[in-house]
Design brief:
The protein is built from eleven helices and twelve strands. It is of the alpha/beta class. Helix 7 links the parallel strand 8 and strand 9. It binds adenosine-5'-diphosphate. Adenosine-5'-diphosphate (ADP) binds next to helix 4 and helix 6.
Length: 382
């Protein structure tokens, strides 16, 4: 992967891509007040926020992945897995999306296991990227087909769509980074042009290859991913994957388990981030105190002696690491569950957090499901 020749164009495109989801979020935020008594409208508006922030998170995650790959710092957590089950799981939310967009979605998966040694999160990301593109470039009334087969000792994943297709001249460069920036006949679908480049890197990191085919404009496209099959031996792990922000990849348990009520201290020097997490926790019935600085966090922790502290790491003066250190030195600070909440999700950041005395590391934006799970798991651990 190489960085863009014209960083000015790239920055303009990036700004544009970030502003796109931001506009509906801002509008939705203003509408919340207007529709607050109308539950149906309220749900629609909050869905807009959830969807658009998911788009932004995806974009930012992709950018971080590009940076990791360019610096050779991506960690694959390979395990033996059944590709068929993983694909079935990955396409499941996608079916509804297609239905809403009036696109016919079909899949053809093998009956017997198609076993590879791969990182389930990254393989799911590959499939997800290809499906998202297929969806993005296919009009209502069109179709998308996904299949997985075994061919010549390799596992093959095919994603075919009946969409706008790709011109021959564009096809040659499609896996290059920023391929779509300034490309002729560009659609209004937007995008940064990093998805396919990232996808190819992830496929190659698994020892595989990817190719694109199209008979031209309006003739649809087909992407084929080849991955080496695993040598016979150990059976595959059961699937259980969810991509979370950054590189935090514990599978998220979305079962609806109620968490026992906790005493929680939330700490962040960004007041809006703090209000959001405190509101979520209070809404779920927890007893929540807040602090906007390291010094205030230490003072509140001493008085409250909470079960859990969600602690922002990057704060001026006394930062989160220092707070964690000092709390751990107190007799009352030994059993508190300390959760680091940071924008940095690399392995080394997690290690640093654990060394500072944290029990858990969460990458921003923290997923409400993950916060919930931490509060549920606390019960199991004690
Ligand atoms: P982007 O974020 O711009 O979609 P990608 O790297 O995923 O970035 O894709 C690069 C370009 O390849 C797209 O902008 C589009 O022009 C083309 N492309 C990718 N997938 C498809 C598809 N299924 N059908 C038609 N064109 C596609």
């Amino acid at each position: 992967m190489t960085l863009p020749g014209s960083s000015g164009t790239f920055l303009a495109t990036l700004a544009h891509e970030l502003r796109n989801p931001l506009a509906p979020v801002r509008m939705a935020a203003e509408l919340l007040e207007v529709v607050k008594d109308d539950t149906t409208r309220l749900e629609q508006v909050s869905n807009v926020i959830t969807r658009q922030t998911a788009n932004m998170t995806r974009l930012i995650d992709d950018l971080l992945d590009v940076s990791r790959i360019t610096h050779g710092r991506i960690d694959l957590r390979k395990e033996r897995l059944d590709l068929g089950s993983l694909i079935a799981q990955t396409v499941s939310p996608f079916r509804d999306e297609c239905e809403r967009a009036e696109i016919t979605f079909t899949s053809e998966l093998p009956r017997s296991p198609l076993v590879i040694d791969g990182d389930p999160v990254r393989i799911a990301q590959i499939i997800d990227n290809l499906l998202n593109n297929a969806h993005k470039f296919t009009e209502p009334g069109g179709s998308i087909h996904v299949s997985a087969t075994e061919e010549d000792g390799q596992a093959l994943i095919r994603v075919r769509d009946s969409g706008i297709g790709i011109e021959r001249s564009h096809l040659e460069h499609i896996f290059e980074m920023f391929a779509q920036v300034g490309s002729p006949g560009r659609t209004t679908q937007g995008g940064l042009g990093i998805g396919l480049s990232l996808t190819r890197s992830l496929v190659e990191l698994h020892g595989g290859a990817i190719e694109a085919k199209s008979d031209g404009r309006g003739k649809g496209s087909e992407f084929t991913v080849r991955l080496p099959l695993a040598p016979p031996g150990e059976p595959p792990h059961p699937p259980g994957v969810g991509r979370t922000a950054g590189d935090d990849r514990e599978p998220v348990d979305t079962t609806d388990t109620a968490s026992p009520l906790r005493s929680v201290l939330a700490v962040d020097d960004n007041r809006d981030a703090l209000t959001a997490v405190a509101t979520l926790l209070r809404y779920n019935g927890h007893d929540v105190e807040t602090a906007e600085s390291g010094a205030e966090a230490l003072e509140k922790a001493r008085i409250q002696q909470p079960d859990v502290i969600f602690l922002d790491v990057g704060m001026p003066e006394v930062d989160g690491y220092e707070v964690a250190h000092r709390i751990r030195r107190q007799p009352w600070g030994q059993t508190i569950l300390l959760v680091a909440v940071t924008g940095w999700g690399q392995e080394k950041d997690k290690e640093e957090a654990l060394n500072a005395g944290f029990d858990v590391h969460l990458t921003k934006p923290a997923d409400p499901e993950e916060i919930h799970r931490i509060l549920v798991d606390l019960e199991r651990d004690r």
